[in-house]
């Protein structure tokens, strides 16, 4: 099929999922067209059946806010016509579903029907979307989508609680391409990051408030009192400077490395012993899944969709949001015994393998077929 994908091109989970999905669809022979304001970070190779169309928003001094939705919907209309796109898949409702719907209506005027699938990812519902300033438009564009999908059961339920949804929401979990993880683990250069007796704990996020960064540090503070350890913090975002200061104030600065954004998450995760994800809200927790496929057990909060990914007592442990005591004690219980650690590492990989893209891709293909036939 000829599929247009709209997403955020950044390091955020929704953009990563959209990009990996597009790459996998292209590998299966579909023609995929990404439409966004920058080439997605994980989209390295463009080719015969994988294209990128940049949305330009020319600056004009009259505009206090540049009209991105307008530019996006115009670009969609042009791309859909020019390439004969059959299905439009938008990731993250704001403003993509809204712009997609406008494109759809414009095309309808010309006798072209393009079905739109909207995938809800999390903060487009739980944080930003529910804000009264956006809610009516988000509610409207979800209901106007031909098919709505959500990355977890928890997010589906939250969407139904917060909005007035008239559509079915189909749960299609996020995925991972396990074929990329047949790694030779001896390759991991852990000696660059820690001494032999130190365990390596990792956190990867966009350092927003919702990620509960102080709890990563307070958990680590307790763990390193019992088990020699290093903390690797990967990512950029508004809470990063505060986190750096907190490590200094707590006297653990030397044990914490802030790496910034990285395209080599897997290389970091492959030498990690434990992953921390104490988020206040999380619709799925793609970062946890990426850790698990790299054989890294996860200590996380039990919010939102995380329990659908991190299995308590198997791939790691879950605790109530803010329960640093519990997270630290569970982390210590895994890290202080190498046999236990090895078991959790194995289990983390096994649980993550269930989210293999080979199981998920056909579900999206079915959704596209269904949407296309509904024209
Ligand atoms: O985690 C973020 O803040 C980024 C955000 C995004 O939209 O890019 O992630 C959301 O979508 C991911 C992919 O579906 C999910 O794995 C994350 O759990 C979700 N984030 C939140 O719900 C906070």
Automatic annotation (TrEMBL):
It comes from the Bacteria. Residues 191-350 form the Glycosyl transferase family domain. InterPro entries: Glyco_trans_1, Glyco_trans_4-like_N, Glycosyltransferase_grp1, Thiol_BshA. GO terms for molecular function: glycosyltransferase activity. It holds the Pfam family Glycos_transf_1. Residues 11-179 form the Glycosyltransferase subfamily 4-like N-terminal domain. GO terms for biological process: bacillithiol biosynthetic process. NCBIfam families: thiol_BshA. This is N-acetyl-alpha-D-glucosaminyl L-malate synthase BshA. It comes from Flagellimonas pacifica.
């Amino acid at each position: 099929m000829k599929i247009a994908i709209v997403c955020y091109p950044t390091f955020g989970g929704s953009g990563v999922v959209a990009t990996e999905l597009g790459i996998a669809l292209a590998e299966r022979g579909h023609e995929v067209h990404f439409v966004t304001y920058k080439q997605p970070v994980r989209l390295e190779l463009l080719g015969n059946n994988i294209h990128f169309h940049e949305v330009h928003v020319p600056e004009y001094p009259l505009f206090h806010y540049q009209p991105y939705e307008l530019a996006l919907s115009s670009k969609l209309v042009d791309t859909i016509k020019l390439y004969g796109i059959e299905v439009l898949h938008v990731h993250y409702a704001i403003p993509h579903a809204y712009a997609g719907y406008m494109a759809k209506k414009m095309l309808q005027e010309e006798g072209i029907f393009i079905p739109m699938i909207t995938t809800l990812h999390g903060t487009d519902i739980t944080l930003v979307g529910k804000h009264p300033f956006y809610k009516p438009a988000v509610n409207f564009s979800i209901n106007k989508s031909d098919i709505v999908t959500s990355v977890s059961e928890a997010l589906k339920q939250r969407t139904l609680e917060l909005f007035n949804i008239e559509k079915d929401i189909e749960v299609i979990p996020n995925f991972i391409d396990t074929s990329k993880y047949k790694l030779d683990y001896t390759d991991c250069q852990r000696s660059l990051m820690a001494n032999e007796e130190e365990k390596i704990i990792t956190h990867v996020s966009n350092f927003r408030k919702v990620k509960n960064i102080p709890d990563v540090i307070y958990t680590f503070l307790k763990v390193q009192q019992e088990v020699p350890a290093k903390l690797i913090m990967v990512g950029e975002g508004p809470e990063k400077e505060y986190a750096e200061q907190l490590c200094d104030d707590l006297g653990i600065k030397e044990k914490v490395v802030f790496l910034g954004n990285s395209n080599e998450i897997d290389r970091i995760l492959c030498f990690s012993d434990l992953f921390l994800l104490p988020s206040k809200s999380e619709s799925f927790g793609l970062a946890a899944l990426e850790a698990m496929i790299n054989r890294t057990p996860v200590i996380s909060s039990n919010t939102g969709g995380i329990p659908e990914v991190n299995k308590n007592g198997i791939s790691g442990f879950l605790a109530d949001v803010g329960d640093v005591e519990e997270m630290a004690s569970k982390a210590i219980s895994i890290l202080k015994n190498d046999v236990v650690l090895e078991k959790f590492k194995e289990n983390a990989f096994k649980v993550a393998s269930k989210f293999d893209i080979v199981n998920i891709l056909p579900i999206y293909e079915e959704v596209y077929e269904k949407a296309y036939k509904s024209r």
